[in-house]
Amino acid sequence: MNSLKIAHIYELGPQPEGVLLGGIEVALLELSKSLAKLGHEVTIVSGASTRASEFRIEDVSVKNVDLAGSMKRTWDPSNLRFARQLAFPFATFAADLSGFDIYHGHFYTSGVAANVLARKYGGVAVNTLHGSYYDIWRYIEPPVVASLYRFTERALAPALARLSTMQIHTGAYFARRVIGWGAPADKVVTIHNGFNPRAFHPDVVPAESLADQTVLFTARRLVEKNGVDYLILAMPDIIAQHDAQLVIAGDGPERPHLERLVEQRGLQDVVSFLGAVPHTELPQYISASDIVVIPSLMEASSLFLIESMACKRPVVATNVGGIPEILNDRCGVLVRPRDVFALSQGVNRLLADQNLRDDLATEAYAAVREALTWDNIARRTEKAYANALSRTGS
């Protein structure tokens, strides 16, 4: 197709050195790079931080917008603040964002911004919903707040699908639900996340700091929905049977609670926190692990899952959201969410059987190595854009 000018719109974006943490930010940047390789002109429009307002990462432009300092005041690389979500659309409206063919929002308020900007400047609005907390709000918020969030999500997800020319979902499980809530089925498409095969592959040199250990590894934004507390609580049963270390990469508002939990359970010698690890360094930690563990309460198509499979590592993950769309029992171990015993059983089963670990890792690599490269995901996204443009006669 002809070259397009594409604006990817999201409240948090990459910094000049890349992405420190945050799955959506990584996906946004990697998709943008692959779309640029296809000949498109791509700009990431994000809320300002304390860093440069405009810069380039390879062939992708990054433009950070602000309004009366609202974006700089709400900048937090480990947590997307509610105040930032509310203020971000107004910051985009105040900026000059004319001249794009595609205004592609990511999640709810950015999706609203994309629709307003597309109508203002004569472009086409596309929105991506990167999963849903609908089923777990009651576990992570007080009852009244959980009910409000569920009501808002149920109303806003199909409304955005109706407003947008095309709505992309990174997990089919939520796409089906949104259609059931009234979204036009012909406007909804599922496109999973991907991985960069030049960075994530079986031959990555492992991190030396984790050599000569049996390592369980997880890389998570440390928020309640990612379930890292359940993995910590599973460690006593795991170390009762195996000599293993849990290494946690990531940062976020739950970190103080998780560190206290480690101390309370006397696990300081077997659980370590790396803090936020640059995405460029993540492959070496994945490759140094014996088992990757994803204990989330909910996920769409987990970027960390796909990247771990691409590094040919065995995975234990919770059977939630879009995870079983990527990982099945032929290429990994799926366990019940919020179940400490099931999690420890799954890990212990793999630690006890090296042949099983090797077989699962081989199948996992085969499942993603072609289908889920970012170049393939970009081509599928390009087709969604072509569909959207054909609907408007552009």
Report strand %: 15-25%
The number of helices is: 15
Mean pLDDT: 95
CATH fold-type name of the largest domain:
Rossmann fold
Q: In CATH terms, what is the architecture of the largest domain? A: 3-Layer(aba) Sandwich
Distance between the termini: 12 Å
Quickly name the level 1 CATH class of the largest domain: Alpha Beta
Given as residue ranges, the uncertain stretches (5+ residues, pLDDT < 50) are none
- Helix and strand succession? EHEEEHHEHEHHEHEEHEHEHEHEHEHHH
CATH homology superfamily of the largest domain: Glycogen Phosphorylase B
Care to count the β-strands? 14
Tell me the domain tally: 2
Strand order of the largest sheet: 3-4-2-1-5-6-7-8
Instruction: Classify the oligomer.
Output: single chain
**Main sheet properties:** 8 strands, mixed
SSE-based structural type: alpha/beta
Helix content: 40-55%
- The best one-word shape is globular
Task: Describe this entry's structure for a reader.
The structure is a single chain. This protein has helices at about 25-35, 70-75, 80-95, 110-120, 135-140, 145-165, 170-180, 230-240, 255-265, 280-290, 305-310, 325, 340-350, 355-370, 375-390, and strands at about 5-10, 40-45, 55, 60-65, 100-105, 125-130, 165-170, 190, 215-220, 245-250, 270-275, 290-295, 315-320, 335. The protein has about 400 residues and is α/β, with parallel strands linked by helices. It folds into two domains: about 5-195 and about 375-390, Glycogen Phosphorylase B (Rossmann fold, 3-Layer(aba) Sandwich), CATH 3.40.50; about 210-370, Rossmann fold (3-Layer(aba) Sandwich), CATH 3.40.50. The strands form two sheets. It has an eight-stranded mixed beta sheet with strand order 3-4-2-1-5-6-7-8, with helices on both faces. A six-stranded parallel beta sheet has the order 11-10-9-12-13-14, with helices on both faces. Strand 5 (about 100-105), helix 4 and strand 6 form a beta-alpha-beta unit. The longest helix is centred in the middle third of the chain and has 21 residues, at about 145-165. It is globular, with a radius of gyration of 21 Å. The two termini are about 10 Å apart.
